[in-house]
Design a protein that fits this description.
Radius of gyration of chain B: 27 Å
CATH superfamily of the largest domain in chain A: Cytochrome-c3 Hydrogenase, chain B
Number of domains of chain A: 2
Bound molecules: iron/sulfur cluster
CATH class of the largest domain in chain B: Alpha Beta
Order of helices and strands of chain A: HHEEEHHHHHEEHHHHHHEEEHHHH
Largest interface: A-B, 36 and 27 residues
Oligomer: heterodimer
CATH architecture of the largest domain in chain A: Orthogonal Bundle
Number of strands of chain A: 8
Strand content of chain B: 15-25%
Strand content of chain A: 5-15%
């Protein structure tokens, strides 16, 4: 009996409360912060269209997107903190693991920052090879992007063609530096190994091969009316917004914002080559697509200009086994396949940096997503995500 | 009207695209993009710089080139290499000299960054070409690279 009384008391209280609650609550207060026709769904973290572990919290009304909230941090590895512990040689290999599709360009950024701080004279050969490999990395990244872009909007075959051409590049990288993705080929002072004897031959073969393939890309996807209907006028980003959101790379250039680091702050051998910055003004998904296709041609032309006259000489200058940067702040920016990548080192004169900051292009490019996706449909969001070309480890670091 | 012309254009450009896929469907039966991986094991050759795993070559007298200088252990970013060393007696001079007891390599932690191989002054460790590293028990990925009873190759100094 006693037990039952004890149990009964809170129960009766509860029911009283509930009754009170329902009596007092008006329908407006129930729905005040959540309109009845809107609901929230999770896209990701394992959704194939987000290309990595990115969770998008979508507020949708039927099929129309009202709000997109990216939820980051699933693969945060605190790379910046790890850099404070590591020596400068070791930092280079961590940058492979941020934007893994532009790993060589990321490596180059850290190496250039360290070399500038040490005031090392880098041989011409190293500069040219770095630029060639950097542009090949960009082509390889754009090939993968083109493949998955097609797949995201429903054309599966593009995936195979994109990966076929990327495979040739992966072979070139593998032969010269041993790895296909996380290459760690640049070291402060030059390159880890000299280029493989087959390198020039293979690159030339790739250039002639790829020149016949980009027109095929166009016939297969660019000219397709169904594809154009899905991408034209979708996710329009104006030039002003591109600037204020800090967007960089092909996404910004598609909105007419000329921001190519290779043009404005040329590094390595980029001051010796001529190329056009690919610019579009529409700012929609199709413009972003066209900018990247145009960049494939430009990168090919840069490679072509350099591959025939790689200067002879050293591939590496000796540095101390323990690299100590002088006291001060050092900054370097490069253009990866996704945009502007910056390294900012504060050194107190010891063997590891006091603080190291990476500015990764993916993070700022993602910030624009809510702005351009609102009002569109879920299918448009997938197309927008594809042309923002996000690499999630680059965002999470 | 534009409804029908859109359909017409859609079909036309689809056919243009399909001319590309059709070309490959008909022509690239041989020399296809994919490899028949487990079946081509006998002929599959990796590139000579391929980073599979770190190995320590020994000569026919069971001698390696590692002096135990620990440079690779220091440069390794993630503690993959552990060198357990000892002091042995140099046979020629009779002086005490550092030698390795065990060169422990945790393959499960290695990021294949090649810094250790780059830094080794005596080229004692090189890249192995084996990439089929899957095992049922991860303790099998911890290896001792120097053979039991192995010695330092005479004449190797750091
Ligand atoms: S492997 Fe090379 S770097 Fe490592 S301890 Fe032996 S000699 Fe030194
Ligand atoms: S390759 Fe890199 S991670 Fe692996 S053992 Fe050598 S230094 Fe360590």
């Amino acid at each position: 009996m006693a037990l039952r009384e004890k149990n009964n008391k809170p129960n009766s209280l509860k029911t009283n409360n509930l009754e009170l609650g329902t009596q007092n609550m008006k329908p407006e207060t129930i729905n005040s912060n959540f309109k009845s026709e809107e609901y929230q769904i999770n896209m990701g973290p394992q959704h194939p269209a987000t290309h990595g572990v990115l969770n998008l919290l979508l507020t949708i009304d039927g099929e129309t997107i009202k709000k997109v909230e990216p939820d980051l941090g699933y693969i945060h590895r605190s790379i910046e903190k790890m850099c404070e512990r590591d020596s400068y040689q070791q930092i280079v290999h961590l940058t492979d693991r941020m934007d893994y599709l532009s790993s060589n360009i990321n490596n180059e950024a850290v190496c250039l920052a360290v070399e500038n701080a040490l005031e090392l004279e880098i041989p011409e050969r190293v500069k040219v090879i770095r630029t060639i490999i950097g542009e090949l990395t960009r082509i390889s990244s754009h090939c993968l992007w083109w493949g998955v872009m097609g797949m995201d909007v429903g054309a599966l075959s593009t995936f195979f063609y994109g990966f076929r051409d990327r495979e040739m590049l992966n072979d070139i990288f593998e032969e010269t530096c041993g790895a296909r993705l996380t290459m760690n080929y640049n070291v402060p002072g030059g390159l880890m190994l000299d280029i493989h004897p087959n390198f020039v031959k293979r690159v030339k073969k790739f250039v002639t091969h790829f020149k016949t393939k980009i027109p095929e890309y166009d016939r297969l996807l660019t000219e397709n009316v169904i594809f154009q209907k899905r991408t034209k006028g979708v996710g329009v980003l104006s030039k002003e917004d591109a600037i204020s959101f800090g967007v960089s790379g092909p996404v910004a250039r598609a909105s007419g914002y000329s921001c190519d680091v290779r043009k404005y702050h040329p590094y390595s051998a980029l001051d010796k080559v001529t190329f056009n910055e690919s610019l579009k003004t529409e700012g929609d998904t199709f413009a972003r697509y066209q900018v990247r296709i145009q960049e494939l041609w430009e990168s090919l032309s840069i490679v072509e200009q350099l591959i025939d006259n790689i200067p002879e000489g050293e591939y590496r200058v000796k540095t101390n086994a323990v690299i100590k940067l002088p006291k001060g702040e050092f900054f370097q920016k490069v253009e990866t396949a996704r945009g502007e990548f910056c390294v900012y080192i504060i050194s107190t004169g010891t063997k590891s940096p006091y603080r190291l900051k990476f500015r990764s292009p993916g993070f700022s490019n993602l910030s624009v997503l809510n702005h351009i996706a609102v009002g569109g449909k879920i299918g448009d969001l997938v197309a927008i995500l594809a042309t923002l070309d996000l690499v999630i480890p680059d965002i999470d670091r | 009207m534009s409804y029908f012309s859109d359909i017409y254009k859609g079909i036309k450009t689809l056919l243009t695209g399909m001319s590309v896929t059709g070309k490959y469907f008909l022509t690239s039966r041989k020399g296809a993009i994919t490899q028949q991986y487990p079946d081509n094991r006998a002929t599959l050759k990796m590139f000579d710089r391929f980073r599979g795993e770190v190995i320590m070559p020994h000569n026919e007298n069971n001698e390696h080139r590692c002096t135990g200088c620990q440079k690779c252990e220091i440069i390794c970013p993630n503690g993959t290499i552990e060198i357990i060393w000892d002091r042995g007696i140099d046979e020629e001079t009779g002086k005490k000299k550092k030698k390795i007891d065990q060169f422990v390599y945790h393959l499960s932690m290695c990021t294949m960054c090649a810094l250790c191989i780059d830094v080794c002054p005596t080229d004692a460790i090189i890249w192995g070409q084996n990439f089929e590293n899957s095992v049922y028990d991860r303790t099998k990925l911890t290896r001792v690279l120097n053979e039991p009873e192995s010695k330092l190759m005479p004449g190797v100094e750091d």
